[in-house]
Amino acid sequence: MGEVEVYGKRPIATSQTLRGADLRALSTTSVADALKYFAGAQMKDYGGLGGLKTINVRSMGAQHVGIYIDGIRITNAQNGTVDLGKFSMSSMESISLYNANKLDNCQSASEYASGATVYLTTRRPTCDSLSVQLRRASFTTFMAKANAQFKWKGWSGFVDGEWTDSRGDYPFRYHSEYEDTVGHRANSDIRYGRIEGALFHGGFSSHLYYYESERGCPGGIVRRLSDKYINVGREWDRDFFVQASYQQEFLHHHRIKVNAKYTNEYLRYCTDYPENQNTARVNNHYRQEDGYGALCYGYRPWSWLSLSTSYDVRYSKLRADLKRFDNVFRLDQKEVVAAQMNYHNIQAAASILHQHYHDFTFVHAGAADPLDRWTPAVSLAYTIAPGVRNSLTLRAWYKKIFRAPTLNDLYYTQVGNRNLKPEYTKQWNIGAEWHYTKSLVPSSHSQVSLSLQADAYQNKIENRIVCLPMKGTYTWTMMNYGYTFCRGLNATGNVRYDTGNWHFSLLTSLTWQRDLNRTDPNDEDTYDKPICYSPKLSYTLTAIAAWKDVSLTLSHMHVGERMWSYADPQDILKPYNNVDMKLSVSDFMSHASHLSPFASVGLCLEVLDLFDEQYEHIPRYPMPGRNYRLTLTLGI
Questions:
Q1: β-strand pairing of 65-69 with 116-122
Q2: DSSP 3-state assignment of 177?
Q3: Residue ranges of E strands in 58-98
Q4: For residues 494 and 435, what is the distance between their CA atoms, to the nearest angstrom?
Q5: How far apart are CA 215 and CA 236, in angstroms?
Q6: Is 253 in contact with 222 (CB distance < 8 Å)?
Q7: Structure pTM?
Q8: Cα separation of 380 and 398, whole Å?
């Protein structure tokens, strides 16, 4: 087959994507593991395999990040965050992070409603296959996974299942000026099962997901490690959703898309045990239901102009057995009108989004007032060198958006505040993106490709929603308090070299930002001080070398020091460096297939935190040190 050239326009938005071989080469088990390699992304991890894992982009907060799987949002009306550790990488084709809107000529209004968006795209099968994975890992961890794919008469789909059991009793050492504690993490076990499936046919796609787990909630470590001081909290989760999407183009200029989704989630949290002597005893049950639908329409009157509109509606219900907690119902409606222009070397886009929230309660204090807001976004890009092998694009964009208070923020017993205002963000961004590809010797099929992008940005967040003590230490309330100002620089660079059976890649990302508290000029302790948990500098370096079916990956992540409390300027989390290594052979028995009943056999060894550096994302929640994973993959 001769050389094929593909023509296309670079997106206006600031975006980063991991796909294909690069994604598979990383030391990743869950989606959370992959997102830490993106510039501007900060992961919060409460330690261990079962710890909650959320993403914060450009210091806006986890509630400002929308997580989408196959174009439909994963939601949580209760607290607004998504635990990314629940989603596996085994069925993913690509993961993308957008700092502005992902501009398509037919997309849902919800996709315009976040400060940043993460898109998880599942793999569409191209043939029939069956694979089984078995893993043995540190801290008494066992995993079994199976994936079946099929393709038949235009239909394709997969079923992916996983079971994992981990004791999670990893050793740690906590050393500071005042203490030196050595021990094993207690109550950090997890057992979970996950099964999901997808079905595709042309413009139709569907996804079904079920996850069930039991885990310990270990809490922060203390100096005294007797059983009397061990946090014995337990958590049970049961998550289910089913979604479908259909899009169709007709009359050459029109496109429609319909989305639908139903979600049902159950959470139980219990600390009501006789041995629990240091925390309040609770046994709470939470149940959420969520129904969603969207109708999108796109029209392209000319080849250089597209217009689109969308209407989304979501109905959420939250029930809990807390004392004096009302059942809460939320009706969330969104409408958007957007236009995009792609004329010669100029790209431009503008949108106006309307959001309306209306809550209903029937017992105690009543519901919060309805929320009704309009927010705009504009983008502009100019391509100086629009070549296929060499292109340079300059871009700029502005977006104003808000997040509505979650149901916990408004109605949680003794803490919720029904008078909360929405939390606004204003984002400005200017950047450049360069792509270059060159064939070194045409006859040898050697090629080098280079891509660089850099963006300078500024964020302002008003009316931040925080939990503050109002009547002494033991009475806290959700309040609008705070104005933060953030300036930063994100940069990524990717270099690839292919020659014969050899493939080399170098992936880099860098974030420098200054995130400051500008709330009260009269408060000398906090004004113009860094926001808690926001590092000034972080970067990742990932090197991949592959020869035929053998690949070696080394990744290095650095995160600078972070303040975590204004009470004492010395309360900082130390900077850390995390080095991971992955060695994999995708089919090491290909030359002796007559000796094996399997079509393919793969083996992978991962060493995480290679130099055993002790570090924390959250104070007193130590992360596991050096640990190992050995995975055997059998293909039938």
A1: parallel
A2: coil
A3: 65-69, 72-74, 92-98
A4: 10
A5: 7
A6: no
A7: 0.90
A8: 9
Write 625-630 long-range contacts (CB < 8 A, 24+).
625/170, 625/171, 625/172, 627/137, 627/138, 627/139, 627/170, 628/137, 628/138, 629/29, 629/135, 629/136, 629/137, 629/138, 629/141, 629/604, 629/605, 630/135, 630/136, 630/137, 630/603, 630/604, 630/605, 630/606
**Residues present in the chain in total:** 636
Q: What is the mean pLDDT of the chain?
A: 86
Separation CA 12–CA 298 (nearest Å): 18
In the structure encoding, which two tokens stand for residue 40, read together? 């501007």
Helix extents (H) in 45-135: none
Q: Tell me the per-residue pLDDT of 229-243, one tens digit each, with 9 for 90 and over.
A: 456 788 999 999 999
Alpha-carbon torsion, ordered 340, 343, 347, 350, to 10 deg: -30
Residue with tokens 């995993």: 143
Alpha-helical regions (H) of 361-518: 407-411
Rounded Cα distance between 542 and 527, Å, is 37
Q: Can you tell me which residue has the tokens 């021990």? A: 183
- Three-state DSSP at 345 gives coil
* Residue bearing tokens 């958006």: 401
Distance, first Cα to last Cα, the chain? 29
Calpha distance 589→532 (Å, rounded): 51
Whether 477 and 417 have beta carbons less than 8 Å apart is answered as yes
Which conformational region is residue 193 in: left (phi greater than 0), alpha (psi within -120 to 50 degrees), or beta?
beta
Answer yes or no: is pLDDT of 1 > 50.
Answer: no
Number of Cβ atoms within 10 Å of the Cβ of 203: 14
**Tokens 């299942």, located at residue:** 161
pLDDT tier at 5, thresholds 50, 70, 90: very low
Cβ atoms of 632 and 603 within 8 Å: the answer is yes
CB 381 within 8 A of CB 393: yes
Q: What kind and span of H or E run contains 35? A: helix 31-35
